[in-house]
Amino acid sequence: MPFYGGEELATVYDEALDEGFGLIASNIAEPSIMMGLMEGADRMDSDLLLQLSGGACKFAGDGDPVAGLKAMGTYIETIAERYDIGVFLNMDHQTDPEFIQQQIELDIPSSIMIDASHEPFEENVATSREVVEMVEDANSDILIEAELGQIKGVEDEIESEEAFYTDPEQAVEFVDRTGADLLAISVGTQHGVAKGKDLELRPDLAHDIRVALRDHGLDTPLVLHGSSGVQPDQLQEMLKHGICKVNKDTRYQYEYTRTAYDLYSEDPHAIVPPEGVEDARDTFFNETDWSPDKSVFDPRVAGRDIRARIADVHADLTTVSGSAGQTLFK
Ligand code: G3H
Ligand code: ZN
Question: Where are the membrane-spanning stretches (predicted)?
Answer without folding.
Answer: none
